[in-house]
Design a protein that fits this description.
Bound molecules: iron/sulfur cluster
Strand content: 5-15%
Radius of gyration: 21 Å
Largest sheet: 4 strands, parallel
Oligomer: single chain
Shape: globular
Strand order of the largest sheet: 2-1-3-4
Mean pLDDT: 96
Number of helices: 17
Amino acid sequence: MADKLYPTEPLKCWNKAKEIRESYYKDYTTAKEKGGIRWAGGAWSFDAIPAGLGRDVYSLTSEPYGASIAFNKEFSLKCLEAAEKAGYSRDLCSYMRNYWGSIILDQYLWGGPFPKPDFLWQDHICCSHAKWYQVVSELEGGIPHYCIDVSVGPYHEVNENRLSYIVGQMHDGIEWLEKVTGRKYNDELLIEAVNDECRSTSTWAEICVLNKNVPAPLDEKTMYSLYVLGTLKKHAREVADFYEELRDEVKDRVARGIAAVANERCRVMSDTQPPWGFLKVFRYLETYGCVSVGSLYTFGLIGMWEVKEDGTWGPRTTPQQKGISIKSRNEALRTLADWNLSKPEWQHFYHPGYKSDMMIRIAREWKLDGVMLHYNRGCEGLSLGIAENRIAIQKAGFPVMIFEGNMGDEREFDEARTMTRIDTFMETLGIKRTG
Ligand code: SF4
């Protein structure tokens, strides 16, 4: 009997996602022509805070920029070699090396010289974070740099002292922003941004929950192009509104049985950033009818989660949904700190067991047949303890395939070997190629 084929169709809001991403980079590049402010910092930085400086404040977040460079293998190699020539070690974060190389070459990925930011606004949990921007500041001749230390432990250990430690740095940071920009800070804009950040990151989790359905309405390769908006400006109303529109469309796909992969018969998840120059790995999986439904990385890098009454994972309830109205700067900052400290991807910096627990939960709730682990040499932060995760996931009863690579340095990814590993893994799972 022929395998069942599910109906499939492109996402209606796909082009809108592309437009938001394109205008993000364009706005940053042309900010000065409009008298605006440019800042740079990590995708995890508290971007809702600089939003209080005005509506003409534009950011360049570092990891998505490093990933975009990695996608362009030729330019990436030039950047990596420029960073190495300048003396930066090849085993450092590969996003960081791509980014530094782009500055050293003074070449922006989308043409022209690298657009210099007015200030650097970062937070620090991975050992690369503060150092990344210390070097950026030096390379650019001394850009003002502020970094918030968020390493106060896993969320279940957060107490008043730990929260106040972060909120205190945020208050100081606002004074610093006023000083370096000469602008008066607007608390109303901050409150608006905090509310929108909670809305966008909770809605992203809601979208990921819909992938528990069989067939999965989204595949991970598609999700990369959607979650990225939250890594660019998670505090923006435009992103929060877009995610609500996307959620409604994905709900409709579920109701109509629309699949991401028409021949779905095997479900896996990946882990950490993929090798961005080789996303065709995911299309290769589809030749087996295998869909990667996401990962802790795609779900929890920006998505905010909580355990629901029935014990399953679902979107974290926002302050607005709880009927809480934020009225002051201090309330906004406390909400923002508390919200971000529960980020899934921040928990496993403290112990691999936290990550294993979350991954096993996903494997069970999203009905997976196996797990693909990327031993990603490019990111020491998210790969920390990955071998221990492998053992824990296997003990929980899920077959695991590993492949070595690097999210941002194609010299460390062996495409043919990875495809062969996939063939072997599919054989182990008893899945034959259909495509
Ligand atoms: S090593 Fe990973 S977590 Fe650390 S800065 Fe680089 S991409 Fe981020």
